[in-house]
Amino acid sequence: MNLTAIILTLNEEQHLPRCLESLRDVTDSVLVADSFSSDRTVAIAEAQGARVVQHPFVNHAQQFNWALAQLDPCTDWVLRIDADEYLTPELAVEIRERLEGLRSEIDGVLLERRMTFQGRMIRFGGVFPVQVLRLFRYGRGECENRWMDEHIRVSGETIRFVSELIDDNLNSLTWWIDKHNRYANREAVEMLNLEYGFMPSGSATNLRSGTQAGLKRWLKERVYANLPGGARATFYFLYRYILRAGFLDGRAGFAFHFLQGFWYRYLVDAKVAEVRRHMANTGSPIQKSILAVLEIDVGHRPKSE
């Protein structure tokens, strides 16, 4: 059995050694798809035996599917992992002991992903651990064609491993805010597309029914998207922080639930409103307004190459 990990990178010298170390006794090979890093990312990857390929970045869906096409045809399984994530020792053992013996009908494996924020593990608020499909048979899965909130899709059966994948980003809060400002642009595109339908997109129906990802997508598109803009961010934060006991995560937890559960969601709504104002004031169509306001060319669709 051949298991290859794919890591997408851009200036990840701080995180990459830890990620690669967690993969050392699990994977047969590692492919690093780099977006022309200016730090030591490439040197670190090559020094630890990873194969490095470089490709211009448009979004995660396009970059991952491009990387997938670069794999050796002899690959049996693929692991998608971010540079700031790592396998717990328990998950490494579970993959080694269970993966090879899975029935041929099983195309994918759901992993339990948990996140830290400002050095604290987030345990409350109903957000973590989240089940993510990160292990799949080569040739039987690919990344959804989306600008944001993309998932791996497989056609066959999936099972769940019980051990955890940890997302532990070590960058500053300023970096986190800048990243989520960019994410908010892409999230706004997805929200606007639900209303205007200007491009094809992976909707809730494209994810397997009954899965956590499918349920969350359905709630987002059918419930959250139909609530009043701006107010829904407040409702969501109160749900997480009070009803789902996010307050038990302490001071760092308050910062996380407020920033990610309210500020980020409110920012998305503000950007959606800004695009609509541009359309009303200029008479421009939705695609041109998105380009002018969010600087995203929605005519440049993510695709596998």
Model regions low in confidence, pLDDT < 50 over at least 5 residues:
none
Question: What overall geometry do the principal axes of the alpha carbons give?
Answer: globular
Percent of residues in helical segments? Answer: 40-55%
* Number of individual domains: 2
* Estimated radius of gyration: 20 Å
N- to C-terminal distance: 26 Å
The helix tally amounts to 9
Question: Quaternary arrangement of the chains shown?
Answer: single chain
Strand content: 15-25%
CATH third-tier fold name of the largest domain:
Spore Coat Polysaccharide Biosynthesis Protein SpsA, Chain A
Q: What is the CATH class of the largest domain?
A: Alpha Beta
- The total beta strand count reads 11
CATH-assigned homologous superfamily of the largest domain: Spore Coat Polysaccharide Biosynthesis Protein SpsA, Chain A
Name the average pLDDT.
92
Family: Belongs to the glycosyltransferase 2 family. WaaE/KdtX subfamily.
GO molecular function, one term: transferase activity
Domain Glycosyltransferase 2-like: 5-100
InterPro entries: Glyco_trans_2-like, Nucleotide-diphossugar_trans
